[in-house]
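Regression test case RT-17, inverse folding.

Input:
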């Protein structure tokens, strides 16, 4: 039996710096969980009101006997680009911290949780710094480890969480970003395939009863100066789909939208992500009619227009200029 060890990391600007994969067969890291494509220009980090938190979890039945996390030290301010005229100050390393291992009764999996404030890591609460953490896990008698570089910044920042809202299966997506109050949030899709008996998933809502604002996946909104929660929106009302048509393309593929939409939902169109081409023409977005006489949907360079979903299925046809 293979043993999956993975980190679920609540952080912003989290970069993978080292990985020992399959150190002792059959142990391996679950790569997709550890891959974060965070924009390097995005605001975020750990503010004065945030801890550094991550979970170490193993599959049901596996024997996790020891978990240690070591702060290998770092620098203040963040390198390689500290403010002009400022020299970096080394941050001393700390001894390994042994974490208690507990059994999650709901999932039957064992886990260890690392949660430390900046002060506990030897940093001033308003420090801007970079530290290196190394986690060592012994599972079934074998040791694996992973090294993580974490940037910490000062300032108020906020989290967006997703709630399954009485789903009967699947898992909620996890947004690892921290947002400033002025930050913009892109709503995630139903990546964990949430389901609910007798109902259909129709985006996310600001209220559990579905009476708040509904956000279709890929919609954006202003975060505001508070943590926020989006609830899975379950409906028994008719829902509708968006389909993409190449409209005579000679190469490439159309995007695929797996979401179900309610009437009046604002739908952001997908870009030409699979490089549709038509000989002698340039892709110019989408239109609700093949002859280009319908509603034009502009997506250059990013979705700049949303489409109000009618009470019927919609096809977006490639527009060729």
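Golden output:
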């Amino acid at each position: 039996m293979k043993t999956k060890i993975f980190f679920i990391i609540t952080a912003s600007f989290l970069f993978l710096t080292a990985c020992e994969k399959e150190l002792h067969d059959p142990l391996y890291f679950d790569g997709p969980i550890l891959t974060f494509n965070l924009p390097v220009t995005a605001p975020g980090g750990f503010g004065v009101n945030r801890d550094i938190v991550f979970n170490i979890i193993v599959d049901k039945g596996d024997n996790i006997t020891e978990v240690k996390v070591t702060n290998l030290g770092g620098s203040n301010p963040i390198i390689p680009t500290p403010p002009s005229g400022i020299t970096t100050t080394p941050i001393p390393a700390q001894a390994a911290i042994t974490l208690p291992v507990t059994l999650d009764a709901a999932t039957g999996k064992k886990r260890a949780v690392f949660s430390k404030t900046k002060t506990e890591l030897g940093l001033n609460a308003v420090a801007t710094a970079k530290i290196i953490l190394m986690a060592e896990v012994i599972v079934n008698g074998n040791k694996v480890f992973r090294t993580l570089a974490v940037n910490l910044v000062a300032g108020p920042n906020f989290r967006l969480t997703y709630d399954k809202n009485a789903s009967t299966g699947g898992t909620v997506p996890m947004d690892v970003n921290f947002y400033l109050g002025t930050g913009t949030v892109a709503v995630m899709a139903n990546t964990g395939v949430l389901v609910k008996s007798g109902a259909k998933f129709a985006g996310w809502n600001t209220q559990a009863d579905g009476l708040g604002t509904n956000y279709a996946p890929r919609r954006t909104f202003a975060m505001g100066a508070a943590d926020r929660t989006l609830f899975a929106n379950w409906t028994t009302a008719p829902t509708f789909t968006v389909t993409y048509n190449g409209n005579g393309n000679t190469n490439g593929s159309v995007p695929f939208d797996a979401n179900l939409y309610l009437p009046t939902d604002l739908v952001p169109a997908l870009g030409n992500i699979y490089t549709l081409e038509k000989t002698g023409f340039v892709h110019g977005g989408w239109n609700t009619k093949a002859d280009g006489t319908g509603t034009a949907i502009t997506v250059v360079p990013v979705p700049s227009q949303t489409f109000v979903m009618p009470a019927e299925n919609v096809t977006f046809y490639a527009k060729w200029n």
